[in-house]
Amino acid sequence: MENNPRSSSSLPLAGRVAIVTGATRGMGREIAIHLHSLGARVTINYVSSSSKAELLVSELNDSSQLKSAIAVKADVSDPDEINNLFDQTEQEFGSKVHIVVNCAGVLDPKYPSLSETTLEDFDNTFTINTRGSFLCCKEAAKRVMRGGGGRIIMMSTSMVGGLAPGYGVYAASKAAVETMVKVLAKELKGSRITANCVAPGPVATEMFYAGKSDETVKMLAGACPMGRIGESKDITEIVGFLAGDGGEWINGICAKRVVVDGRHHMLGRLASNTAKELLNGQEVVVVRCEEICLSGGLVRQKMKYMRFLRKRMNTKPSHGPIHFRAPSKIFWRTVRGMIPHKTKRGAAALARLKVFEGIPPPYDKIKRMSGHKYCLLGRLSSEVGWNHYDTIKELETKRKERSQVMYERKKQLNKLRTKAEKVAEERLGSQLDVLAPVKY
Predict the structure, then answer these.
(1) Of 330, 353, 372, 425, which one's alpha carbon is 20 to 30 angstroms from that of 181?
(2) Of 111, 170, 374, 389, catalytic
(3) Residues 68-100: pLDDT tens digits?
(4) DSSP 146
């Protein structure tokens, strides 16, 4: 008989049991497939798409000698059905549940403003997204395997921090989930069960495309750092990492992109903090690397760096150190030295780091100041062969000028709007009482 690779205990999740809710489509389906490929036995949860669930179970079982996937119908907002979901999983696989990934969620495709959101839509969103997550967390905290290997993973969204119009109720429902998971992680202290959130940005799923025009999709893709909409596989790798042994020390984290303005940060301190966050599963973007600070004066730092360049040249003259002269690469290399980048975990952590000179859109967010004596990393780089410092400064100057013009225009428009509202109130007078009941 041909050897089945799934029967090998070398698979990272071999022998473990996972429940994935909302697993018949989108990210839930891809996550279930990925966990199964890592060796886990998977329960495919669904609420209405029984045919899709059975088809997926058939595909997963066909790739394995033993029964390694089942489908269970359950509404995540119903406590009795959640309890039954765990019961059937334990009964079918003869083992406690190790991993729970809650992907069940809803998003109103009309993207209404808060004033236009109906109470029915509000209740439906919080019932599925927040109540469903609460019931999954509650049952998982009592029944997931303790003593090692227990993982609770909830799905959130980058819209919690994005504060985009039309996402008010959806973002609020997910913000509650993030807070709940962080508290749960502390309550599970000592059980060796981890609880984490994954908060992806735009991902190409049915839920994402629903109600969006082609122009809106293109605009969102252009705003993404990678210049494209994310794919489900971009998220499944993160979930697989958190579900495995590599995620044992990551607890109470909401995995989302953190943007750091490098201006006037001290190099060593910023690099060490960045390395810790990367190893904890965070994605980190550092902008304005050319203005990161180094302790001491320029002459001293230039002498140290020239010694480094000579060593690099002597090691491999045909290669040269040119690619390490850019400030972003100098910072990247400093972080790399603080991470075990030759291990699987370290390589994955380093891949979550993005570094830039200047502030490419949309990263004009956070600033940190330092009062220490310093030289600018960009100036040091320009002294040792990096020829783009003046260009970056010129582009930044133009950006600030454009921003100032837009800010002044916005202030002027706000003044005109306030003045127009006062004039309208004076002209309408008693007619406002007639218009108020119809919310005009």
Answers:
(1) 353
(2) 170
(3) 999 999 999 999 999 999 999 999 999 999 999
(4) P
